[in-house]
Design brief:
Elements lengths: L5 H8 L3 H8 L7 H14 L5 H8 L4 E7 H6 L1 H15 L5 E7 L11 H4 L5 E5 L4 H7 L6 E4 L10 E4 L1 H14 L5 E6 L4 H16 L9 E5 L4 H14 L5 E4 L2 H13 L9 E3 L16 E3 L2 H18 L6 E4 L2 E3 L8
Parallel strand pairs: 1-2, 1-3, 3-4, 4-5, 5-11, 6-7, 6-8, 8-9
Antiparallel strand pairs: 10-12
Length: about 350
């Protein structure tokens, strides 16, 4: 059976096709009685107006772009996938489609912009995670609304959803201190990423609050990316340096998994010999042995919040960018214990 058309709706409601179109686009010229009659016909016929037809009338596509670097999506898939899902769930409320694309982490002028930008097929763009500044500069001539999540570009002014990373860094370190640990190592990659750097600040703030002197030898922050293998190599360097430590706080769970692998391979008991805590609370944490203590980030909520910012920006034409700080929680599992 053929799908109902706008012509079928007009016939059933006894109005013109133009009137049906005006109702679909919430035009103020339509009387409440006519609007009710047309909407009833749409519902009874189960008619769904095409997105392209709506776009022609409203000069809007109904699409929102979602850009993330290949590294972020592939290496940290559980994290950014959940944020993406949050945007998609929230987008349904306002009948937007989310178009996902990845760009090279070393994006430069020779790389093409995403097709949905070049074809002007999005009303706005959500950018997740750290991206090259050159991409932002390349997007500016298109005058497309931009909203950021889990990254705030330096010297810029955009709506953004961020994690309360400093608080999270303090929660993780405070937990280890309360368990009696004083020699607490910190392991990170891509320390220039604002989120990672803020977790490091939280770690140092917590030590200072507890009157524990920060030891530079206990901080390995020069890994280029916070990936599992870099966590493995970072703790290897820490152990081989001979510095004493009884606990490790890693900037994310991926690095924590690498740390756990190295320590177990080399005969360390967790948490008997060394306690370990991560950050993000990805799904893999529960399958580890022991399950990983961590800082939980509400990733789907972050996606929903950034989509709300985008919709508000598109509908209300808000000039003043808004910053949303998402709270985090300490999740205690079996990888941390009394010292």
């Amino acid at each position: 059976m053929a799908a109902p058309t706008i012509k079928d709706v007009a016939k059933k409601a006894n109005v013109s096709i133009a009137t049906v179109s005006l109702v679909i686009h919430n035009h103020e010229r339509i009387t409440p009685e006519t609007r009710s009659r047309v909407n009833k016909a749409i519902e009874e016929l189960n008619y769904h107006p095409s997105r392209s037809a709506r776009g022609l009338a409203s000069k809007k596509t109904g699409n929102i772009g979602f850009i993330v670097t290949e590294d972020h999506f592939l290496r940290s898939e559980p994290f950014y996938t959940r944020i993406f899902l949050g945007t998609e769930f929230e987008a349904r409320h306002d009948e937007y489609y989310i178009l996902l694309t990845t760009i090279p982490s070393d994006y430069d002028v020779e790389d093409k912009l995403p097709r949905f930008i070049l074809e002007r097929n999005v009303d706005g763009v959500i950018i997740a995670g750290k991206i090259p500044g050159l991409l932002i500069e390349s997007l500016k001539p298109y005058n497309i609304p931009l909203v950021f999540v889990d990254y705030y570009p330096p010297d810029e002014n955009y709506p953004v959803v961020l994690i309360d990373n400093i608080s999270g860094g303090m929660l993780a370190t405070d937990h280890l201190i309360k368990l009696g640990h004083k020699k607490i190592a910190f392991i990170a990659g891509d320390i220039q990423h604002p989120s990672i750097n803020e977790r490091f600040i939280g770690y140092k703030n917590s030590l200072e609050k507890a009157s524990i002197e920060f030891d530079r030898n206990l901080a390995v922050t020069d890994e280029n990316y916070p990936a599992r293998e870099n966590g493995y190599y970072a703790v290897q360097r820490l152990v081989q340096s001979g510095v004493e430590f009884s606990a490790v706080f890693t900037c994310n769970d991926a690095m924590a998994i690498g740390v756990m692998q190295y320590l177990k391979e080399h005969g360390y008991k967790i948490p008997g010999d060394i306690s370990l805590i991560g950050f993000d609370d990805v799904e893999a944490d529960l399958s580890l042995d022991p399950p990983l203590s961590t800082i939980s980030v509400p990733k789907i909520d972050m996606g929903a919040e950034v989509m709300k910012l985008m919709v508000s920006m598109l509908k209300n034409k808000v000039d003043k960018p808004k910053k949303v700080l998402v709270p985090v929680e300490l999740v205690i599992r079996n990888s941390t214990g009394q010292h």
